[in-house]
């Protein structure tokens, strides 16, 4: 009997957006207007690529980026929650599906000693080039009209579950914890026995409410959280059953 916990990262595990936090490294802690205005909807990863080039041009090095990123606060109660999951790994498989990047998530989890809690991290691949610039690529290609070009979280979740089944692993329940609009697609993939946990006051909660009002509610149960303590309370009930 195992449960699968699926976490988003920005505004879920951490209380900020890692991609906008890195702007603290820029001259005067802001980006020039023409760079900011170059963002096109659905093409965030390409936009962040240009941000990293700008930081590189301005002499921002890996060490400074790492120092800045590891000051991002975790969401309220999240440190306790991740500690609890780490102590109960025989009951929980735990993955991250995020539109951030491998470098940022790796830095943040390792600095707080939480990288062992997660079995896999699915996010945009990033690395430092020979010139010391951070580069980022799209996670994959997909055909989902609802999702940004670089990442369909439903596809990631479905492929992960298929791979686990091949290994003989199936889950009693999937618990999906997120906040953003791009978390709706995987939530709509969840079954009746699963649970979606949208963060209170964020886009995912609003979109799920809108679907219910439109009389096309999601199949899974929905439990809203404002602090990770709410998530921990639910998980404690789950393992008592």
TrEMBL record:
Mg(2+) binds at residues 8, 10, 179. Keywords: Hydrolase, Magnesium, Metal-binding. Substrate binds at residues 19, 99. Its cofactor is Mg(2+). The active site is at residues 8, 10. One of its GO terms (molecular function) is phosphatase activity. The keyword Oxidoreductase does not apply. It comes from the Eukaryota. Gene3D superfamilies: HAD superfamily/HAD-like (3.40.50.1000). Pfam families: Put_Phosphatase (PF06888). The keyword Magnesium applies. Belongs to the HAD-like hydrolase superfamily. PHOSPHO family. This is PHOP2 phosphatase.
